[in-house]
Amino acid sequence: MMKKAWDGYVNFAWGSNELRPQSKGPHNPDVLGTIPMGASIIDGMDTLYIMGMDQEFEAATTWVKNALAFDKQPSLTFF
């Protein structure tokens, strides 16, 4: 199940915060900030590692090294 979910995210929303599974598109909700920061990538890395999904983990690691940036000004929701 993890493999199928991860592949969907990779194919349709890579780098975005979330995948909208029905529309097969990216989603960057206000609660996570409106800028795509790969929240699903970061959140899923420990699971990928524990499950032995080595290729997927390496792709996630590469994305973090090359694309994750904290110099953007997102719109955040504080509740």
Walk me through this protein's architecture:
The structure is a single chain. The chain has one domain (2-67). Helices cover 48% and strands 8% of the residues. The chain is built from 3 helices and 2 strands; from the N terminus they run H-E-E-H-H. Strands 1-2 form a two-stranded antiparallel sheet. Helix 2 (39-50) runs antiparallel to helix 3 (54-67). Its EC number is 3.2.1.-.
Task: Give a quick summary of the entry.
This protein is mainly α and 79 residues long. The protein has helices at 2-13, 39-50, 54-67; strands at residues 18-20, 25-27.
For this entry, give a set of tags.
79 residues; mainly alpha; two-stranded antiparallel sheet; glycosidase; alpha-1,2-Mannosidase; mannosyl-oligosaccharide 1,2-alpha-mannosidase activity
Radius of gyration: 13 Å
Distance between the termini: 32 Å
Biggest sheet: strands side by side, in what order?
1-2
Mean pLDDT: 89
Task: Please estimate the helix content.
Answer: 40-55%
Tell me the major beta sheet.
Answer: 2 strands, antiparallel
Q: Can you count the helices?
A: 3
Beta strands, count: 2
Unreliable spans are: none
Shape: globular
Strand percentage lies at 5-15%
Structural class comes to mainly alpha
Query: What is the chain-wise order of helices and strands?
Result: HEEHH
> How many domains comprise the coordinates?
1
